[in-house]
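Tokens in:
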């Protein structure tokens, strides 16, 4: 079904990724639930609820910083199966010093994941789904996301003999296979890329096409009273771009052009691009750290010590392994980064 849509013409890479992940009922994120230990991949909220607990502490610290308003609005981008939302709401409920109404907004593209989220969060009140960030207009907004930006469709551009080409996907009727093809890049794209990256020092560019619009919408919310943005994702902050696109099929690396609609396609976020767009919108980057440092500053080790006292054998082993996976530089600790943006300089942790 997805391949039949591609057969007719050359498809830009970002459109191809959108087809594979979102556009049709056979697309990856529109089908069954792939999250968690039984699924295709495990994200930090599925490793241990201690991850979301730490985010709740961060939310609490921000709530204190803005002088404890009567109401806060948490807006999660790309909430997956709703695990992080569930655990954040459950932790916040336990904090005695957080006495305010909490509205939780979910920004989700997949119809099937929206259903999963609705089931998961059914016991909580004040849960809302939004489909247009531009229409969201609340003060006291805490925008959060985990592995949201790495799931955005990207374009790839390649420089050969000083000429820039864009990567497309097409169906080869002779070999009956999908293949990549490079066509000379359109001038308007090169103009857009030049605003972010220095093309003299780069030979390869990855460019999520919807990013600018998303960051502009987030920035608009951040200009409202007491609103902050925190995102966690895997990637770097570099003025140089690399080819990082990958497909994961049944927990293993696979080829982008194989297992269409059955594999997850991601790339490593270049925070340089996000930071540049936020700075253009005159916002302050108040923190950029690796996940390990961020979670340790919030007290994950102390929380682990406390929780360990009540655990034995297998449960203790599982928690020890989970915390190590979140913190160890060779695992998620260094590869994952945390970016926090606000409209003026403040210190939260
Ligand atoms: C890799 S998953 C991460 C899920 C979850 N945050 C986690 O950590 O387990 C990416 C999520 O972003 C959603 N998503 C991707 N692009 C989106 C867009 N443009 N608008 C809203 N949601 C989007 C996907 O449907 C999915 O829920």
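Residues out:
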């Amino acid at each position: 079904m997805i391949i039949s849509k591609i057969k007719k013409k050359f498809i830009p890479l970002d459109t191809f990724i959108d087809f594979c992940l979102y556009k049709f009922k056979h697309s990856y994120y529109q089908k069954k639930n792939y999250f968690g230990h039984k699924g295709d991949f495990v994200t930090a909220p599925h490793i241990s609820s201690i991850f979301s607990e730490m985010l709740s502490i961060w939310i609490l610290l921000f709530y204190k910083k803005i002088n404890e308003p009567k109401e806060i609005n948490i807006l999660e981008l790309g909430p997956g199966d709703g695990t992080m939302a569930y655990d954040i709401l459950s932790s916040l409920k336990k904090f005695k010093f957080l006495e305010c109404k909490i509205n939780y907004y979910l920004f989700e593209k997949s119809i099937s994941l929206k259903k999963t989220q609705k089931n998961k969060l059914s016991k909580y009140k004040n849960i809302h789904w939004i489909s247009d960030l531009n229409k969201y207009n609340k003060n006291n907004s805490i925008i959060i996301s985990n592995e949201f930006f790495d799931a955005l469709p990207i374009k790839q551009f390649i420089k050969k003999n000083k000429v820039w080409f864009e990567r497309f996907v097409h169906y080869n009727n002779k070999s009956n296979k999908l293949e990549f093809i490079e066509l000379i890049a359109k001038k308007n794209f090169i103009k857009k890329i030049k605003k972010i990256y220095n093309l003299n020092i780069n030979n390869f560019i990855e460019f999520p096409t919807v990013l600018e619009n998303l960051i502009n919408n987030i920035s608009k919310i951040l200009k409202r009273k007491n609103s902050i943005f925190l995102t966690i994702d895997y990637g770097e902050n570099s003025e140089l771009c690399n080819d990082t696109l990958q497909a994961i099929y049944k927990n293993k690396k696979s080829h982008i052009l194989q297992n269409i609609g059955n594999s997850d396609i991601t790339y490593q976020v270049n925070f340089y691009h996000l930071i540049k767009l936020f700075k253009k919108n005159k916002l302050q980057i108040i923190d950029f750290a690796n996940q390990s440092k961020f979670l340790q500053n919030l007290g994950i080790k102390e929380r682990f010590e406390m929780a360990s006292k009540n655990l034995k054998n297998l449960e203790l082993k599982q928690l020890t392994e989970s915390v190590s996976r979140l913190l160890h530089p060779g695992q998620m600790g260094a590869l994952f980064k945390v970016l926090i943006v606000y409209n003026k300089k403040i210190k939260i942790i």
